[in-house]
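User: I'm putting together notes for a lab meeting next week and I want to include a structural view of one of the chains we've been expressing. I don't have a solved structure, so I'd like a prediction I can at least talk through. The sequence is below, exactly as it appears in our construct file.
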Amino acid sequence: MRFSEDHNTVDVAEALARLRRWWPIIVAGVVALLAAIGVMTMVYTVQPEERAVVKRFGAVIKTTDPGLHFKLPFGIDSIQRVATERVLKEEFGFRTAEVGEPSRYVSQDFPDESLMLSGDLNIIDVEWVVQYRIADPIKFLYSMREPVRTLRDLSESVMRRVVGNRLGSEILTTARVEIANTTREEVQAAMDLYATGIHVITVELQNVVPPKAVQPAFNQVNEARQEQERMINEATKQANEAIPRAKGEASRVIAEAQGYAAERTNQALGEAARFRAILAEYQEAPEVTRRRMYLETLSSVLPEIGSVLVIQEGQSAPVPLLHLREAQTPKEVAP
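Assistant: Thanks for the context. Below is the predicted structure for the 335-residue chain, given as structure tokens.
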């Protein structure tokens, strides 16, 4: 029995001796392991499209920009990365199955999201997309429990109200851009009020159509409206062509009448001046003026009479009296 106790004492002593020999190595290994863990948990990298929220014992202390950064190791500081530069989107009334050229969409309909009632009590199927960006990562993470869900609920509520204040024909044709802009402004105001840290970039309406059950009737109405617009455009075109033509014709006739009036007026004034000149000459020399006027009248009238023949009784050949035609010698044309 004494031998057994001595043997156990020897084994314990040997184990302690071995432990004393390996103890520095074990301590060095533990220290090296802790140092490696500390280095690994102290350094972190933020990607270019991200910002990191740093928390110390669960409390937010700061945000860091893209790049290499350091923090307290061993879980004292923790980080949470948020993609602040990435444009995100929420789809309403449809879902994208695969993004590509072209994109592929899910065949399932979402009538609970897309079917809306317009101001004139028509049902409209509206599909739209909200594109947004996370502007404040701290507010996005900790001001509200589900900010994206809040964004979806607010977008759907605002879109239903804006569509409900419009006529169905306006929604389907001319008011799409105004509806999208109004929805974006009101959703952004609500996001700022709730401090969600979300910046709404744009709201884009995709398909805005009547429900499938009434789409054939809507197509007929739309074709009739297009035909009406076409006829109005043609009538406007004809009016735009005819009115300037009529105005031009009226201006031409007025100009011709004014020219004729001016010509007649000038002619009358000239005749009056000529008559006054002849009268003055006549008063000075009546006989000479009378004879000159007589000869001028004969010289202008007789050439148009032609040949005058006088035949005496008992003669067969005519006797030429006035050779007026021979007096009108033709003018020679210069070669």
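A couple of points you could mention at the meeting. Residues 2-82 form one domain. The first strand starts at residue 43 and ends at 46.

User: Perfect, that's what I needed.
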